[in-house]
Amino acid sequence: MTPDRIKKSKHDSEVLLYYKLYEQTPVTKKYLLVAVKIENGEGFILTSFFTDKIKAGETKWER
């Protein structure tokens, strides 16, 4: 997945939120959010789900 936007979590400075917009999903147009925690130089996925909007917070990267 190539994200459309990467944001820093407001709750945990070691978590990055990756967003990718999908025009068609089983329900409607949605963003896929993948939350990744960076710890000791390694990243692992905490969770992923579809959402209607991008959360507030610091944008680290945007396409």
CA distance, first residue to last residue: 13 Å
| Shape descriptor | globular
Number of strands: 5
Q: What do the pLDDT scores average to?
A: 94
Sheet-strand content, in percent, reads over 45%
Structural class: mainly beta
What Rg is obtained from the alpha carbons, in whole angstroms?
12 Å
Write the layout of secondary structure elements.
Layout: E1 5-8, E2 15-22, E3 30-39, E4 42-51, E5 59-62
Question: What would you note in describing this structure?
Answer:
- There is one protein chain.
- By secondary structure, this protein is mostly beta strands.
- The chain has one domain (5-62).
- 0% of the residues lie in helices and 57% in strands.
- The protein contains no helices and 5 strands.
- The chain has strands at 5-8, 15-22, 30-39, 42-51, 59-62.
- Strands 4-3-2-1-5 form a 5-stranded antiparallel sheet, with no helix packed on it.
- A hairpin with a 6-residue loop joins strand 1 (5-8) and strand 2.
- The model has no long low-confidence stretch (mean pLDDT 94).
